[in-house]
Amino acid sequence: MSSTKSTYEDLLTFVKYEMETSANYQPLIIRALLKSGGKMTALDLSKELMLGNDLEVGKYRSILMRYPKKTLMKRGIIQYDRKSKVFELLARSGEERMIEQIVECCDRELAKWRLAVQRTESSSLRYDLIDEAGGRCQACGALAHNSPLHIDHIVPKDLAKRGRVATADGQRIDVESRENLQVLCETCNCGKRASSRTDFRPSEERLLESLIATLGHAADLGYDVNSMTATAQGRFRSRDHLTAADGHSRVRTRAPTKKRTSGRESR
Ligand SMILES: [Zn+2]
Known about the structure:
With 267 residues, the chain is mainly alpha-helical. It is built from 8 helices and 6 strands; from the N terminus they run H-H-H-H-E-E-H-E-E-E-E-H-H-H.
């Protein structure tokens, strides 16, 4: 812990000689605080960081100059003066109280947009989770094409207090955070009681159960399970993956009686 920099001289020394920064955050924060009399809310400081990112601002400038400018000019809402680079709203007269109503309408549109973005983000989280789970139910190993996959809250939402829940190891986390989500097939998810906190994510025991179930399923379908097991072990060995199998007896290999290619390669 360093000493408090209580004078501008101390602060200058810090900025000049001591400030180590790989990003531009620290100088932006200090500059903004100085300019606003020493105090700012977290929201205002976050905006400052965003505005300090020249590349990001440049990106928005090019967006502004393309679509909204063109559209709003065509609709007779704004004009743009190239020389002074100033945008101007063409509506200038009328009852003042209308301004408030217009702003409210814009706010409503923005809220709709935010909701749509959040939905897209949550659908990409869904995709990530299912991808990480190998496209399988984390309880029974069912593939998505056998049973629709759901995203389940390990500690149910109903048990959340102010949006937070306690995990098995006592940590308090956001109920919607990744750590509290698991992929379950429809059957497993419906079987899970509303109050259940079961974490079905893979453990050695569960993976073994799933392996046995998959092999049983393959045998039922008439595949050569021995040959499949040998192929799987060979692939793992080539990835230098199967150290645990050392010393175990090798599975007897023989020519496959039935050769089929599966659609999904193990990754
Ligand atoms: Zn399942």
